[in-house]
Amino acid sequence: QIIRGLQAAGVDTVFGLPGVHALGLWKALETSGMRYLGFRHEQAAAHAADGYARASRKPAALFLSTGPGALNSLSALGEAYVSSSPVIAISSAIPSKYFGKGKGYLHEAKDLGPAFAAVTKASVRVLNASELIQGLTHVLREAIGGRRRPVFLEVAADVFDADGEGDVDLSAETPRSVRQDEIDQAALLLRLAARPVIWAGGGVLASGASEALTRIAEKIDAPVVTTFMGKGTVPEDHPLCAGTMVRQPEGQELLREADLLLAVGTRFSAMATGNWKMQLPSQLVHIDIDREELGRNYPVRLGIAADARSCLEKIDAALEMDEPASKPEWGSSAAQRVRAASFERARSEGPREMEMLDAVRAAVPPEIHTVHDMTIASYWSAPFLEVTQPGTFHYPYGYASLGFSLPASIGVAVATGRPVVSFSGDGGLQYHDRELSTIAQYNLPVVALVFNDRAWGILKSFSKARYSTTFGLDLRGPDFVALAESHGVPATVAHTPEELGAAVSKAVESNGPYLVEIPGEWRPPPPQSYYT
């Protein structure tokens, strides 16, 4: 029943770790025809499921064992929750006759429910076979309906072996349709604006709305800025794309010049807005699938609770009926001014860092996905690594989970069937370096870039600036080349941009696992207060 329910929800791939109480679930998986990847740690498996869901736009299943095994996944599910990623986590529980009695049964936990409720959209426990269909139906509906987020289903071990009847019914509920007056009002506001700007968040990519948003930008001559989660929504070589520059001074100046902001699929989070100090136009049209986000952080002139793609396509059609507006040129000149000034300043303040990014970009074809950890090289990449294919840039910006990149890259590689380039620092890679064995076992084309400054680099920089100390922030790491090779992954070291470009080209062309270590410090990206 569980396997059939997952398949009905569109799941074709399972990530996880087996456990003694969940072996019945693995038995059902064996003959299901679904793809399965086994991991060394549950947190890594959860990040991989998240990566798969982001790259494929399909839900992914995460199979967990009882108690401590399940709890190992919490921080990764928190990342998936904040980043709106549909991961369906299913764990075993101790046999139902012992549940809640505190007798000390193997892997017994007091109560997993509150822990998982904190990081999922829905958390359900099933202690007998008669409850399974109802519980499974509920979590699957929550995972794939509305704002897609992770869910958790805890199933007693004996239920896996019980005979059950029936299957889940996932027939689609009728979603709220956007009112025509909302579409007409949005189109009118966009048509009347002299200096409109579009702010694109991750919801645009999640709904597949990039083309519709780009058409609207072209019709109203609006520059487009993106959040980290929305990076690449509009190809960054498009003349209207101002890029991921909302926290750059030039991007903030653009927003101050605008007389209207169309924001789509975004929460206006603290990181994107400098703790909400950023000044936005008073004319704000905000579209988000979650009604609670509308007006939460900034007042709106018009808020529309809707899926980004369906709403933007309706607005696009409404604008199609209008006569072309006669306005002074605004969009492309403003967008290119922002990009040119931002890049010029970055090359002045970080010439080596920008040369390194240029080398990676030149070596990685545009259709290849890059996955990023919370590391200084990624902080440079977010604004300055050009992305021309929507949906090929992945970042843990919501929860900011360190250690995300390497395991998430596994999920992305499985979803795309192509090489994936992972950006990690030496500290972040060591969260999950054991998964190099997973990569080798399945011969996955994950190219792991390790930027090794032998420290918690960004923290070291901030602590030195604020408190004149770097106490506790140095790291003694392994020989990463030897470590990779011990797992069966080829590896090399690159010191210069030329060496890095050559190594990455070779790694991508190998179409298999590879690790490239890049020694040396990276300075924080401009502005220096970017992450404070």
The total count of strands amounts to 18
Distance between the termini: 48 Å
Helix content: 40-55%
Taking pLDDT < 50 over at least 5 consecutive residues as the criterion, the unreliable ranges are 528-532
| Mean residue pLDDT | 92
Main sheet makeup: 6 strands, parallel
Strand content: 15-25%
**Largest sheet: spatial strand order:** 2-1-3-4-6-5
Helix/strand/pairing category:
alpha/beta
Gross geometry: globular
How many individual helices? 23
Task: Report the radius of gyration as a whole number of Å.
Answer: 24 Å
Explained architecture:
Residues 528-532 have low confidence and may be disordered. With 532 residues, the protein is α/β, with parallel strands linked by helices. The radius of gyration is 24 Å and the shape is globular. The chain contains 23 helices and 18 strands. Helix 23 links the parallel strand 17 (491-493) and strand 18 (514-519).
List the helices and strands and how they pair.
Layout: H1 2-8, E1 13-16, H2 23-30, E2 35-38, H3 42-56, E3 60-64, H4 68-71, H5 74-82, E4 87-93, H6 113-117, E5 122-126, H7 132-144, E6 151-156, H8 157-160, H9 180-192, E7 196-200, H10 202-206, H11 210-220, E8 224-226, E9 241-243, H12 249-257, E10 260-264, H13 270-273, E11 284-288, E12 302-305, H14 308-320, H15 331-349, H16 351-363, E13 369-372, H17 376-384, E14 393-394, H18 405-416, E15 420-425, H19 426-429, H20 436-441, E16 446-452, H21 457-467, H22 480-486, E17 491-493, H23 497-510, E18 514-519
Parallel strand pairs: 1-2, 1-3, 3-4, 4-6, 5-6, 7-8, 7-10, 8-9, 10-11, 11-12, 13-14, 13-15, 15-16, 16-18, 17-18
Helix pairs in contact: 3-5, 3-18, 9-14, 11-14, 12-15, 15-16, 16-23
